[in-house]
Write a structure and sequence with these properties.
The structure is a single chain. The chain is of the alpha+beta class. Strands 1, 2, 3, 4, 5, 6 and 7 form a seven-stranded antiparallel sheet that branches. The radius of gyration is 23 Å and the shape is rod-shaped.
């Protein structure tokens, strides 16, 4: 009888251990997905602000439907850096790079090496077809 109880105890510990590992894995996956969703929401908000600036008359400081803002500074964002790729805006979920050529907004989450782009087709920002793609060259931090 003692051997059977010991076997059940060990089996119970193994099952609980597997459940904990599965729970941690599910939490991490959900965290990455939530981070990406938050980054897309932030990128779409910035994209909407870019379009509003584009459509604003030149007399009011906008592009007058002639040009997109050259930087996120023109739209009122505090950027952390500007280079040949455009201006970079950091969020708690990752960073967003705006390039006025096109224009495109590139999203890079902190927890993965994937990237996604928001483009401006048909007069409104939209997530580029294909969604997230792996961009492991920069380690996911956009630097």
């Amino acid at each position: 009888m003692g051997q059977q109880q010991l076997l059940l105890l060990v089996l119970g510990i193994v099952i609980v251990g597997l459940a904990v590992v599965a729970g941690i894995s599910a939490f991490e996956d959900n965290q990455q997905k939530s981070e990406k969703d938050a980054l897309v929401n932030e990128g779409m908000r910035i994209g909407t602000d870019v379009m509003a600036n584009y459509k604003k008359p030149e007399q009011l400081g906008g592009g007058g439907e002639e040009s997109y803002p050259s930087s996120l500074k023109d739209v009122g964002y505090d950027v952390t850096g500007e280079n040949s790729e455009g201006s970079r805006y950091d969020t708690p979920w990752g960073n967003i790079t705006y390039d006025s050529d096109g224009p495109t907004i590139t999203l890079r989450p902190k927890s993965s090496s994937e990237t996604a782009e928001i483009t401006f087709e048909d007069g409104s920002p939209s997530l580029a077809s294909g969604g997230w793609s792996d961009d492991s060259d920069d380690g996911g931090n956009g630097e």
